[in-house]
Amino acid sequence: MLFLPLFYLILSYEGYINPSVEISQNLFNNSYFWGDFLRQNLFRQLLPVLPLISIMITADLVSSEFSNRTAMVLYTNINRNTFIRAKIEFLVISLVIYVSLLWISLIIATSLLFHAVISFNYLITGYILIFTHLLFYVSFSFLLSSLTQNTFVAFLVPFFYMYFGGFFIDLDMELLSYNYYGDTVFSFFTEILIYNNYAINDFPLLVFSLFMYFGLPIILFIVTYFEFKKIDIRV
């Protein structure tokens, strides 16, 4: 399931798996990677595989310790700030490893099957966007898991937010949608990478979107870090 997006991409381009078929670099970068792989994984509503995996991994990370009553023993012997910081570091490192493995697999698969290489500037930009996107859902689920001690809540709330985030845009409440900021940031890099267009139509919106897209996961981790020590572990 972890590499399902990569398999889906390969199946979509199976007609190009032929040594005699030459794929242009622009087609490979713009359509294959940036369009069909990256955009689909960032904004796919029906099957958001990567965010879903992130939520599943995170939802039970802290709440399980309250459900099996180990929290009282654990948090009385270990400083809470140290413990929650270790959890955050574990999540970030795990996410780095996963996205890196996905990217390495993507590079190897495209080189072997399509005899083409994705340009480095596309790869590094895409890596940062995907990593940040997943980090938001990880931090969101981790916040709920830590503060509610409920795995069900920590999974369902981000899950419904992910699936129905588009309704905020339909109701002219796009500032409540993380995907809205992601779409603005993605469009900005699309203009730069594909069209070499550095003109900015709405600078304040772009700056605010960049801040929210890259800053919100950090803010959620900070809130979790400082609020977790206020929790009554006797619950």
Characterization of the model:
- The model has no long low-confidence stretch (mean pLDDT 79).
- The protein is built from 11 helices and no strands.
- The chain has helices spanning 4-12, 25-43, 49-59, 63-67, 71-77, 80-114, 120-148, 151-164, 166-170, 178-193, 203-227.
- It has one domain.
- The longest helix has 35 residues, at 80-114.
- It is mainly α and 235 residues long.
- It is 74% helix and 0% strand.
- It is globular.
Overview features:
74% helix; 0% strand; 235 residues; 11 helices; single chain; mainly alpha
Care to give the gist of this entry?
The chain is built from 11 helices and no strands. The protein starts with a helix and ends in an 8-residue tail after the last helix.
Report helical residue fraction.
Answer: over 70%
The tally of structural domains comes to 1
Structural class determined from secondary elements: mainly alpha
What is the distance, rounded to the nearest whole angstrom, between the alpha carbons of the first and last residues? 35 Å
According to DSSP, the number of beta strands is 0
Oligomer: single chain
Q: What does the main sheet amount to?
A: none
Radius of gyration: 20 Å
Overall pLDDT confidence: 79
Low-confidence runs:
none
State the order of secondary-structure elements, H for helix, E for strand.
HHHHHHHHHHH
